[in-house]
Amino acid sequence: MINTDSFNTSIITNSRKAVRQNIKFVRKQLAEGVILSAVVKGNAYGHGIEQIVPMFEAEGINHISVFSAYEAYRVCAVKKAETTVLIMGWMEDEQIEWAIQQDVHFYVFEMGRLAAAVRYAKQLKKVAKIHIEIETGMNRTGFETKYLDEVIQTLQEQKQYLSFEGLCTHYAGAESITNYLRVDDQIKTYKSILKSFQSKGCEPKLKHTACSAAAISYPETQMDMVRIGILLYGYWPSRETFIYHQRSNGFGKEGDKRKISDPLKRVISWKSKIMSVKEVPMGEFIGYGTSYQAPKKVKVAAIPVGYAYGFARSLSNQGRVIVNGKRVAVIGTVNMNLMIVNVTECKQVKKGDEVTIIGGNGKVVVSVASFGEMSNQLNYELLSRLPMDIPRRISD
Ligand SMILES: *Cc1c(COP(=O)(O)O)cnc(C)c1O
Fold it and tell me: What span, in angstroms and rounded, lies between the C-alpha atoms of 191 and 255?
């Protein structure tokens, strides 16, 4: 049989050691007893659900959050029996039947889904494990105040069929101080709605609101459980969150001589190979159009990774990769299937040499973040757009 892995133009490797280190770091930030739910939406932020879930479980994680029923289905195919799965977003009402059968927990943020949960639970003679998402100011999904009386009434009347597992919400930008007032308002709104549930004898098993940025910058949002994604993969939600965390640990104070170092470790490394090398005379344009003109004689290498393979076109003339231990620049526009890099400074570079697109050897590193400070959301976007069909490996 042909090993089709070598047909692919690049390969992704996930590091166990990095996962272990990031989980340890996150646990250190959590108050005692707080449950850590690992978020694996977006194909585990591009790392691969099937590879990442068992790696998380091996480090003691037993709660996994996803966006859709499809992702939950994929998690269920590889997880341990005792691991809880929570769908935070999309499912057809019909998929509630499957979720109840599998004991998969799910968010409920509108009356139709609440009614469907009761209906299927009755049919199956089984309890639906639901988390009520409330509107606190993000204005995405979540029950608005006017529905809450009816929600509470349904929870009480259908106790036999509905288990009130959680009361939850999501913050609209906890990674930036410019959103402080909005987030602070959301915390207050959450607390007041929680009180009104409690005053009617409706107590959720878990109160949960925090993503990575909230758990770090607003510790009071940790409550009973946190839903952490980006930190587990070794990235900060934003530069601001990183600096805030370092400063609150005393870094940068008068007399503090410690070197600022990143306690997180990137899990992913993404590698390809050089497909050809050539020299281009001074003054020639390289690639499509005229976005890059050789300022002198340059040596360029073609790499078989383009925007169709998850390397964003916005990294044209911007991105960096590592060739033979040197960081080199992407020149010209990123094409659908390949990009061109400037290897003038790399001696002895040849076809077949390894190219690191994300990752590094310790000394020289390229991370998604180092592609630039174009946007806070860049890490999330580039990682989660890594195609599913790039082969994924695990290293120690
Ligand atoms: C994505 C997401 C999270 C996790 O966010 P990170 O910033 O990656 O920690 C938590 N909760 C909800 C509802 C989400 O959509």
Answer: 40
